[in-house]
Amino acid sequence: MKDIRRHWVLYTMFLPVAIYFIVFAYIPMAGIVMAFESYTRTGGMFFSKWVGFDNFHYFFASGKAWLVTRNTIVYNVIFLGCYTVFSIIAAVFMSEIRSKFFKKMTQTLMFLPYFISWVTVSAFVYNFFNYEYGIVNKILHYFGMEGIDIYSNTSYWYFLLPFLYVWKWVGYGSILYLAAIVGIDQEIYEAATIDGASRFQRIMRITLPLLKPTMIILILLGLGRIMRGEFDMFYQLIGNNGLLMDATDIIDTLAFRSLMGSADFGMASSVGVYQSVLTLIIILTANWLVRKYDRDHALF
User: Fold this and answer.
1) 113 with 168: CB under 8 angstroms?
2) Any alpha helices (H) in the chain, and if so which ranges?
3) Which of 103, 165, 228, 251 is buried deepest, with most CB atoms within 10 A?
4) What distance in Å separates the CA atoms of residue 253 and residue 245, rounded to the nearest whole number?
5) What are the phi and psi torsion angles at 180 (to 5°)?
6) Could you list the residue ranges that cross the membrane (predicted)?
7) Residue-range domains of the chain with CATH
8) 56-108 residue pLDDT tens
9) DSSP letter at 155?
10) pTM across the whole model
């Protein structure tokens, strides 16, 4: 209590955050019980028939469990890797820009896609790549080339999805890394310059090593979402296109279809529990590896 009285301003500032997580994260955890029930509207959350692990059995017996798990992990690993690499590169480039006007303009243009919803992005993609009326195919047809049909060919999406993810999120990530670069003591760079270090050497020997703590923390936080696919992106861009389903279906879209198509709350809840358990295992394993390598940079 003495600590609360002494730092009451800090606790007051933290209170809205605590309320947010209690209301939207901890209280909804009571819904986990639905994963073990045959949920009905009359029985509700706590009085529906208890079926144990039958919902999980249905999920694994459907033949989709391994497919959507693989897709979710593979896509998120690629997204996280590309996001980290390009965010660092963008942050380093922006830190080396000397013109304040050009730096601010670059930051604004890179950050702009972050505010564009996936609904809008899906409209852009459709108008660019529609087989009959898309801009890209119009140009290809004009030059006598064969058009591309991305909505019936899965191979294009292996590149297009990571590209769109990086395009949307790299501006946000670069700001985080740029803030870390700005926090580096400028005297280190000045000493390196006096010793004859080139700009590339300063980046490789000073900037990147000192970005390691920030990079590790952000990667660990990213791993916490590795089983949570970008539902908005996949659903808005792919929808219920059966031709692309096997290559782009993730856990979140499967759970959404099971809920909207058959109103199977138990199945959808069991998928959510499955996601959470795997995420917990992944983040604990990753944090353990980080602690083993460098204890100071671990989350806990």
Assistant:
1) yes
2) 2-6, 8-21, 44-47, 54-61, 65-96, 100-111, 118-129, 135-142, 157-182, 186-194, 199-202, 208-223, 231-237, 245-248, 251-262, 265-293
3) 251
4) 10
5) -70, -40
6) 12-36, 73-97, 109-129, 166-185, 206-227, 272-290
7) 67-185+214-250+282-297 (1.10.3720.10)
8) 887 787 778 888 889 999 999 999 999 999 999 999 998 888 888 888 888 88
9) G
10) 0.85
